[in-house]
Amino acid sequence: KMENDGTLTYPDFGLARVAENKQPVELTPATREWAFDHAEYEHVGTITASIEGREDFDGDLIGVFVDGECRGIGERMHFSLDDSYMYIIQTYSNMVEGEELHFKYLDSASDEVIEFEETLTFENNMVVGDGFNTFALSREVGDNVQPNAFGISDAYPNPFNPVTSFSYSVPTDGMVHVSVHDVNGRLVAELVNGYVQAGTHPVTWDAGNLSSGLYLIKMLANEEHVAMQKIMLIK
């Protein structure tokens, strides 16, 4: 869609991929449905994801899907600055925004595909996560393992504008109160207040009616277990 002729010069360094990452992704019988042609799509975004709660290995893949159709694949790669591992996924769509993205993970050793409950909404030119703050995939579909401790997961995104998501975990049934306070301790939102069954429960908070600043998520479970987390709203 350029108005005039132009020349694209690709550098030999800087943006170039290292040699060991140049090979194309090889699909297996378990991932045959992951085949797609990025040239069929007009819009693109980037997601930097990680696998949490299970050990992953070189050769593993994360796929992004819309209604069962693959829209991007990322390979496991080492992030040397933080000595961690991540998956950078170029994600494609023919809609500027609005499509719901789902995630699948290939365990290359067993050729097993695992689906996750986390989702994102596509936006053209979106950049979600980086090497230091990845989009974490941890809630496996069909995972009935009960948590063994009370707590709150890291909110994502953080900083955020104006919506962020997190989950809270309770190993036993009981009363749970999850609230948000400003830096002066004033209550600004009540997200959960009632009897909750044991498990891990997702929460999404829309702070569209609040001003930029630092806020504190607080969870009180069974009147004795407290967990807190700082989040930053930037508008």
Describe what this molecule looks like in 3D.
The protein has 235 residues and is mainly β. It has no helices and 16 strands. The chain has strands at 43-51, 61-66, 69-79, 84-93, 97-107, 112-115, 120-123, 127-128, 135-137, 151-152, 163-170, 174-182, 187-196, 199-206, 213-221, 225-233. The strands form 3 sheets. Strands 1, 2, 3, 4, 5, 6, 7, 8 and 9 form a 9-stranded mixed sheet that branches. A 4-stranded antiparallel sheet has the order 13-12-15-16, with no helix packed on it. A 3-stranded antiparallel sheet has the order 10-11-14, with no helix packed on it. Mean pLDDT is 88; it is low at 13-19.
Q: What is this entry, summarized?
A:
With 235 residues, this protein is mainly β. The protein has no helices and 16 strands. A hairpin with a 2-residue loop joins strand 2 and strand 3.
Would you tell me the structural class of the helices and strands?
Answer: mainly beta
Q: Which regions contain 5 or more consecutive residues with pLDDT less than 50?
A: 13-19
DSSP strand content = over 45%
Count the E strands.
Answer: 16
**Broad shape:** globular
Report helical residue fraction. under 10%
Distance between the termini: 32 Å
Give the overall pLDDT as a whole number: 88
- List the secondary-structure elements in sequence, H or E: EEEEEEEEEEEEEEEE
Counting copies of identical and different chains, the oligomeric state is single chain
Number of distinct helices: 0
Q: Please describe the biggest sheet, giving its number of strands, its sense, and whether it closes into a barrel.
A: 9 strands, mixed
CA radius of gyration:
20 Å
